[in-house]
Amino acid sequence: MSMQLGIVGKPNVGKSTFFNAATDAHAAIANYPFTTIDANRGVMFIRAPCPCKEFNLHCTPHNSKCSDGVRFVPIEALDVAGLVPDAHKGRGLGNKFLDDLRQADAFIHIVDASGSTDAEGNPRQVGSYDPLNDVDFLEKEITYWLLGIIKDGWERLAKQCELEEKKIEKVLAERLTGLGIKEDHIINAMRKENMKPERPSKWTDDELLKLADYVRHVSKPMIIAFNKSDKAPDEFMKKADGLREKGYIVVPTSAEAELALTNAMKKEIIKYTPGESTFTLLKPDALGEKQRQALEYIQTHVLTKYGSTGVQKCIDAAVHMLKLIVVYPVEDPIHLTDKQGRVLPDAYLVPEGITAKDLAFKVHTDLGKNFIRAIDARTHRVIGADHPLKNNDVVSIVANI
């Protein structure tokens, strides 16, 4: 799993609840700031159609899960300490938070849509704090953190580039290499702000800030989970529409409801598939009155109202935003099996546009080095090394090994 989603936000908005609901981990959950100190790592799953139904086969997944023709493909999740204003200056656990997020490919920003936590993450009355403030402050903190990295020894670096005729975009990309930031990101930011690459020493603080902000936007894209949506005032939920008009992806979410449903599912009290709009009671007689009322509340105020708890939708939306696809490598293109005879065993989450040979290397280095050809299991046609794969492709790789 090379892709990683960072679960971010201020303290006490439901990050750890979201993390627990989306994974099988057991991060601490409590109603006070800084419950999460060390980063929690786990595995979340994105949904994709499993080819088993199309081919009328019973699949035996190895690196993923299948539920009624829906394949759940793993992706790494990172839940980190809550971020407070001025974290980029080291306030709170800011430095740790930001360092933990270096490798994240995208963020799921958990926002308390109910407005029941202040800027520091302390509990307050529902509707007393504007959730839009959290969107602004988190972006600002990450931008200023990036600016601090860029400006460290900036004057000397800029003059050195001018004297030695080095490309400033290349130097900056090297400085930010551990953050998933590429040279193209820097070049596009410079073009947007009309910054002259030959005279970086003349760039103003405002231009550097805009460069950092652009780089944050393109290199660390974000989904906004409007959490506690079942408790949010209607006027707060309408704020999501304003964010969408600005280009944000906003998902009404109840991580608490998802956690309750997944726990009931594990106990075989209900049949439930993450991301669905309903569940089925399996043991109605085993429910106490409080449990029954809780499940009825979730169905009415979350699933029926919003179509799902939003947790799975956030994960799927983040993967779509990153332009990732799912492909299924097999050894036998007729029976869709691997060497062990497992049917459609593996599902790989890969970048859009990946080639057949790239996939071979991803499956195993020897397959890539000794690649001969690939076969499309649907059409049984031979495809070459440079053939770009499509979402849901089932591919057999032929290699000289």
Largest sheet, strands/sense/barrel:
7 strands, mixed
* CATH-derived architecture of the largest domain: 3-Layer(aba) Sandwich
What is the number of strand segments? 14
Average residue-wise pLDDT = 88
Question: Into how many domains do the coordinates divide?
Answer: 3
CATH topology of the largest domain: Rossmann fold
CATH H-level homologous superfamily name of the largest domain: P-loop containing nucleotide triphosphate hydrolases
Q: Which structural class best describes the helix and strand composition?
A: alpha/beta
N to C succession of SSEs: EHEEEHEHHHHHEHHEHEEHHEEHHEEE
Notable traits:
single chain, 401 residues, alpha/beta, Helicase, Ruva Protein, domain 3, 3 domains, five-stranded mixed β-sheet, 14 helices, 14 strands, 18% strand
Task: Write a brief structural summary.
By secondary structure, the protein is an alpha/beta fold. It has helices at residues 15-22, 94-100, 132-151, 154-163, 168-175, 183-192, 205-219, 234-237, 239-245, 255-266, 289-306, 311-321, 356-363, 365-369; strands at residues 4-8, 40-49, 65-67, 70-79, 106-112, 222-227, 249-252, 270-271, 280-281, 324-330, 348-351, 371-376, 382-383, 394-399.
Structure description:
The chain has 401 residues and is α/β, with parallel strands linked by helices. The protein folds into three domains: 4-39 and 80-143 and 221-318, 3-Layer(aba) Sandwich (Rossmann fold); 152-219, Helicase, Ruva Protein, domain 3 (Orthogonal Bundle), CATH 1.10.8.470; 325-399, Beta-grasp domain (Ubiquitin-like (UB roll)). 36% of the residues lie in helices and 18% in strands. The protein contains 14 helices and 14 strands. Helix 3 (132-151) crosses helix 7 (205-219), helix 5 (168-175) crosses helix 6 and helix 6 (183-192) packs across helix 7 (205-219). The longest helix has 20 residues, at 132-151. It is flat, with a radius of gyration of 24 Å.
